[in-house]
Amino acid sequence: MTPQQLRAFCLEFNASAEEFPFGPETSVFKVLGKMFALSALDARPLTVNLKCDPDEAVQLREKYDAVVPGWHMNKRHWNTVTVSGVSDRVLRELIEDSYDLVVAGLPKADRLRLDRP
């Protein structure tokens, strides 16, 4: 997945937005103000930080060398994924799971509005 494809996929989700609170080099993808993905899209190798269920995070780290505890993040709840180290299908699933975890923490009215009860 290219940086442009990563950005486009993150922005496909309902109410998602790209912001730059940490400077112009770091894209932060949010849903209703809550972060679900973070990436320096110009970095090589391309990586993305994604929220993850703590138990699943450990399993993913054991399964994929490209998945490590979240860099500069809560290592229990965030993974850093090297994009070239996983298939596009796996990466898309991880991004969607991150989005869904963040949405699950939103108030019920917001979840319903996003069509993600």
Question: Helical amount among residues, as a percent range?
Answer: 25-40%
What's the number of extended β-strand segments? 6
Distance between termini? 29 Å
Estimated structural class: alpha+beta
Q: Give the SSE order as H and E letters.
A: HEEEEHEEHH
In DSSP terms (H or I, runs of 4 or more residues), the helix count works out at 4
User: Main sheet, how many strands, which sense, barrel?
Assistant: 6 strands, antiparallel
Query: How large is the share of residues in beta strands?
Result: 15-25%
Low-confidence stretches: none
Physical arrangement of strands within the biggest beta sheet: 1-2-3-4-6-5
* Shape designation: globular
Specify Rg, calculated over alpha carbons.
Answer: 13 Å
Write down the overall mean pLDDT: 94
Topology:
Blueprint: H1 3-11, E1 16-19, E2 27-31, E3 34-39, E4 47-51, H2 54-63, E5 67-69, E6 78-82, H3 88-104, H4 108-113
Antiparallel strand pairs: 1-2, 2-3, 3-4, 4-6, 5-6
Please describe what this structure looks like:
- Helices cover 36% and strands 24% of the residues.
- The chain has a six-stranded antiparallel β-sheet with strand order 1-2-3-4-6-5.
- The model has no long low-confidence stretch (mean pLDDT 94).
- It is globular.
- It is α+β, with helices and mostly antiparallel strands.
Could you name the key traits of this structure?
6-stranded antiparallel sheet; 36% helix; 117 residues; 24% strand; alpha+beta; globular
